[in-house]
Amino acid sequence: MGSKLPRVVRMVAAATAIGLAAACGGGGGQASPAAGGDPAQPVELTFWSWVPDIQKAVDQFNAAHPGIKVKLETITPGPDGGYAKMLAAVKAGNAPDVAQVGYDSLPSFLVNGALEDVTEHARDDAATFVDWQWQTGVFGGKVYAIPQASGPMGFYYRKDLFDKWGIEAPKTWDDFAAAAATIRQKDKDAYISTFAANQAPWMISLAQQAGRQWFSTEGDAWKVTIDNPDTRRMAAFWQKMLDDKLLKTEADLSNAWYKDLQTGGIVGWIGGSWGDAIIRGNAPDTSGKWAVAPMPQWAGATTFTSASWAGGSASAILKGTDNPAAATEFAVWLNSDPRSVNTLLSAGYGWPSIKDTSQITNLQKDDTVFPFYGGQNIWDVFKESDAAVTMDWRWPPVSDALYASLTDNAKAAVQGQGTLTDAFVKTQQAMVEQLRAKGLNVVTGG
Amino acid sequence: MAGVLQRTPTTPARAGVAPRRPPRRRAHVAVFVAPFFVAFALFFLAPIGYAIHQSFFRLTSSGLGLTEPVLEFAGLGNYVTALTDGAFLASIGRVLLFSLIEVPTMVACALALALLLDSARARFRAFFRVSFFLPYGVPGVIASLLWGFLYVPQTSPLIDVLAAAGLPHDFLGPDTILLSIANISTWQFAGYNMLVLIAGLQAIPQELYEAARVDGASETRIAWHVKIPLVRAPLILITVFTLIGTLQLFVEPLILKPLTTAVNSDYTPNLAAYNQAFGQANIHLASAEATLIAVMAFVISFGFLRLVNRKGNRAW
């Protein structure tokens, strides 16, 4: 406000700066006839990621591949502006060769023409990876990205307090609601969890687990079914808990929420497998007091079902790379070599996307992770969870708009403007409009 | 902004014709001012022109949209989309409401501080002047983060005290968030605007005060009848700046957004444009929204200037 430069000018300046920054880190390098390259003249690749400690895995790759030299550039997480930077860099013709892109955003990248077709270089790698994760990077039979990790959901909870209050880890959602009520009786300052209206991927995971999917294709049209009976049942369940004042409504992954984890103001979290590092990092004094249980199930469910937070994350090969072969080789190695996967697992990047995890020693024994959970091997829970992720979930080419719309509507509902059910109805309408505005074919259903 | 400064009333210039410069001198002048105009055109006019140009296009796909989109001319389509979007219109209403709260508050605070420091009995002037001005040195993002910590119950030392005293203490609720944002803005800029007014006050000849004192005027009356009318021009200036600033409200809600459910992604027009550009990769709609915001700020600030500068028929 006041008399500094007009904001628009500053925004333009910032955008220019972003452009310049992107220009400094182009995916340069000489085209090489074959991957592997020549140690004397190594192929240079640029890799953009925000995963903490991924530099270690990049160093391991560089040590093992003298013919390829990968330079890591750490950027802001995709949803916070990283994706915008990537798309701008692709437009400007100086994008990195490989970039971290969530499964939920791959269709958007494809629609924006930002992905490189690497089918010929990745032909033999499909068998290495879990099928549903591999498929997230495949469109129309062509490969554009190599899966890195998913975020299967589980229930993190303060076992010490649950034991003290005589509460079992909830097996069903009804148990979860009952536990929430008991916690409110036992301690006036404690809540079972927050309803994170700020966190679209989290709400989507709840809907994904509830049953019916939100997006599918019918011929050459998108079918939007956000407002469906399963999602409505899920929304009504959480709305009732909100009405009964059983939940906090602060944002998750925020300072307030971290403080509550430290002080016992919040004693549980339905979160992705990478969440273990978040709790360990932000509430170190609660070490040994946590445990992980499977995601609660809907009453009457015949098979155990779970979901994955925003799908997961991939290493996408971006349009305009000079070395698609070397880039693919790096992406495959980074996400499948046991040394690399072990490194990334400890850094809290999620659940490995490879089928054969027998070489991943950290899954059996991890002295940084297990003691925090009272010695529990939490990966057993997430392994079961990952196997139970519903496979028919599809991401639309407008996931950013979906997130913005859902969080805005859910925030309004938490404020008392309508209910969560209304929030999903409004999001359904917004998505239909959004897809039509883009010129796509849309059919609706319920 | 230079235009604003020239609009302020000045003593009429001496009637007379400026001597004509010889042509060679003119060439010199051109050489010296060229670098400025080149930079001005490149870094100021070109981006504005580009944004306006972008606002007339749109990207469309077809079918499932799993192929590259096509750029097509949209005419006024993006403007229609923006102006028929309830959320965007609501955000405009919100900043207008915010202006109604913030502009009078800001001008009153700045004027009160300036008059206090300018009064004959003020002590430690330099110290207070620096203290009041200090918040302006804090970048907006940092200021919003600092206040954010004070507004969030889990991290705020204030809230427990207020709650214990039975005072209202919900800074992030739907009804109070706008006031909380106004508080951050006022804290940041009141000191700066105060300095502008102090500069105006120091230009007032002392004889006027002496004359007023001889006539038996108290300090309060001097402030009301002498000082305030004579700093009319800087008052108008800071009002216009504050008005433009409020219409462009962006940083504070952006930083507070993760802390509260009361701020959504199109809380203010600028935030909506930012969200379209960097959240949803729709630079065309964002450009149209940004253009609309600029036009709105232009119309309102010049409308205000017209209102207060009507010759011989001043509002005050």
Automatic annotation (TrEMBL), chain A:
Keyword Transcription: no
Annotated CDD domains: PBP2_TMBP_like
Superkingdom classification of source: Bacteria
UniProt KW Flavoprotein keyword: no
InterPro entries the UniProt entry points to: Bact_solute-bd_prot1, SBP
Pfam families linked: SBP_bac_1
Signal sequence annotation: 1-23
Keyword line: Cell membrane, Lipoprotein, Membrane, Palmitate, Signal, Sugar transport, Transport
UniProt cross-references to PANTHER family, sorted A to Z: ARABINOSE-BINDING PROTEIN-RELATED (PTHR43649), POLYGALACTURONAN_RHAMNOGALACTURONAN-BINDING PROTEIN YTCQ (PTHR43649:SF33)
Protein name (Swiss-Prot/TrEMBL): Multiple sugar transport system substrate-binding protein
Source organism of the structure: Nonomuraea muscovyensis
Automatic annotation (TrEMBL), chain B:
Domain of life from the UniProt record: Bacteria
Region spans: Disordered: 1-21
Ranges that cross the membrane: 29-52, 95-118, 130-152, 230-251, 290-308
Subcellular location field: Cell membrane
Domain ABC transmembrane type-1: start-end pairs: 92-304
InterPro entries (alphabetical): MetI-like, MetI-like_sf, UgpAE/MalFG_permease
Family to which this protein belongs: Belongs to the binding-protein-dependent transport system permease family.
Protein name: Multiple sugar transport system permease protein
Species this protein is from: Nonomuraea muscovyensis
